[in-house]
Amino acid sequence: MSERNIELMRQMAEFETSHDRDRLFALYTDEVIFRDVALDVLATGKDEVKRLLESVYAAMEGYSMALTSAYADENGGGAEWIMAGKHTGDFMDFPATGVSWKLRAASIMRFSNGLVTHRSDYWSVSSFTKQVGLA
């Protein structure tokens, strides 16, 4: 088990919740590959991942991520999260509803030299649309 990479995931949740972009993106390689499986979105490189995250922050007031469990070795790991926010702006194909939501999510990651090289996020679109009144 890699305590260093578990700490990296803990910091990821902290910095995503505080919207501390500089500290968050210091945890990723420049060529990071980020996949949001639920939305079928692939972002390659820090700039694309930043644009994706900015769209989340713009549409989801108070967006937060709480780490509930994690496992990692030197090369990869997985994490479970609770994501939450208020759907105040249009996001992808989801028009703003002004409704708060809270979801369980999971991520699978790969690491190199203490940084994230790949991240795939899994969460339920069905649960989100039900909670915000779009289903």
Short descriptors:
135 residues, alpha+beta, Nuclear Transport Factor 2, Chain: A, 6-stranded mixed beta sheet, 4 helices, 45% strand
**N-to-C span:** 41 Å
Strand composition percent: over 45%
- H and E order: HHEEHEEEEH
**Proportion in helices:** 25-40%
Average of per-residue pLDDT values: 97
Strand order of the largest sheet: 2-1-6-5-4-3
| CATH architecture call | Roll
Quick one: CATH class? Answer: Alpha Beta
Overall number of strands: 6
CATH topology: Nuclear Transport Factor 2, Chain: A
* Integer tally of domains: 1
Principal-axis shape equals: globular
The whole-angstrom Rg is 14 Å
Largest sheet: 6 strands, mixed
SS content category: alpha+beta
Supply the number of helical segments.
4
Low-confidence stretches: none
How would you concisely characterize the structure shown here?
Pfam families: SnoaL_2 (PF12680). This protein is α+β, with helices and mostly antiparallel strands and 135 residues long.
